[in-house]
Design goal:
Two copies of one chain form a homodimer. Chain A is an alpha+beta fold. Chain A is built from five helices and ten strands. The mean pLDDT of chain A is 90. The structure holds a DNA duplex.
DNA sequence: CGTCCGCTTGACTCAGATCAAACTTGGTGG
DNA sequence: CCACCAAGTTTGATCTGAGTCAAGCGGACG
């Protein structure tokens, strides 16, 4: 679950943007659609997800206002994920892909920012691959929490539902809740409201 | 399992390289080491892998002669993977990180090539995350093969051992072999020497 | 020729998927 | 303010698929 590009002036000088507003759940694009534009989120938020053959959804990321979506598609023919507006809907600005590429050529600094962002995504995804390679639910949960907890306090202020976490770490929500209860009973973590604290 | 950067003139103009030769299994760097140089593989090949708490290894990529390794670390303080020479050993050229970044600023074309490469890695890793999110061994294997089989012939010329594939898709080798046998018995695939063909 | 390692199969166990149901929470509308 | 609905959370019972331990086969390589 990588954050989208936190660029201060994304797509500056990349031609005239076209705005579009989406209702909650409405799709900005679907897997397989041809890539024509790059998007900047003006308001609200978008979810990136991949759908499995059995109908389940795998969350791949989220882009809030001020961020960009699907930078990884810049050089692709078609999208590999679905992108839908999160609850509350979203407004995006679309920039023609060719314009964005031209703007990157013209401004090396922006290219460097994007480079930095994609490099961070690669590392984040590798972390997630390692996490998913763990065989037990408890190991996955502890790895997940260790990744996000504040190193000093060992606390993670939850910014999502456990159900979503279950999808992120490849478990059913039942298996997740049970493993959480086990970990809490064993004293490895404490849940209090929207806070999770690691112990020992 | 992403291929490393296929740049024609990687790190051109990035200062004076320092060569180093590694024996098979010898480490170029380890997880946690500070990032000081970027490497170009002159001869042989390197493996990128992450180690789990229980001692298991998760393969993250491979870089053969003519490719670069660990481009994703360009902006990191320390490595997040181990990098060891593959069987046969390897010879690499190391370029100071600051020189590489300076060269990228000077030559936008190279930056674009790296951008393209990282974008492809992100998509590949997302595919792997989706694959690992599948719950059954058979679904993972079919997804794995579908990703690599030639679209026209539906055949994958194996370039690695099944044992390695098992680590890539998060299964024990026993579970992989059994699932393969089931799929073959059910007529979903055929193994012949080093070729795997998908059917139906 | 012997050793190493990838491959393969068997038997057993157990963790997690599945199906089911109840409770909590938050938000909407009357 | 409260009734109601949707979604997240939690627990139970059952079953199956993958992990684990174990053993045997075969090819590659020194």
């Amino acid at each position: 679950m990588q954050p989208a590009a936190p660029m201060t002036a994304p797509y500056a000088g990349a031609g005239m943007p076209v705005q579009r507003t989406l209702a909650a759940g409405e799709a900005l694009f679907r897997s397989g659609d041809p890539v024509r534009q790059m998007f900047f989120v003006e308001r609200g938020a978008l979810r990136l997800q991949r759908n499995l053959a059995d109908g389940r959804l795998v969350p791949m990321g989220r882009a809030a206002a001020g961020e960009t979506v699907a930078e990884a598609a810049l050089f692709s023919d078609c999208y590999h994920c679905d992108c839908v507006a999160d609850i509350g809907g979203a407004t995006v600005s679309g920039f023609a892909r060719a314009d964005v590429i031209a703007a990157l050529h013209a401004a090396p600094g922006q290219g460097m920012a994007l480079l930095r962002h994609l490099a961070a995504q690669v590392q984040g995804l590798r972390g997630r691959v390692a996490l998913l390679s763990q065989h037990t639910a408890e190991a996955r949960i502890l790895a997940y929490l260790a990744q996000r907890a504040d190193p000093a306090t060992a606390v993670w202020p939850m910014d999502r539902t456990w159900k979503l976490v279950a999808d992120e770490i490849g478990l059913t929500h039942e298996a997740l809740y049970r493993a959480l209860a086990r970990l809490e009973r064993a004293g490895h973590l404490v849940r209090r409201r929207r806070l999770v604290a690691l112990c020992g």
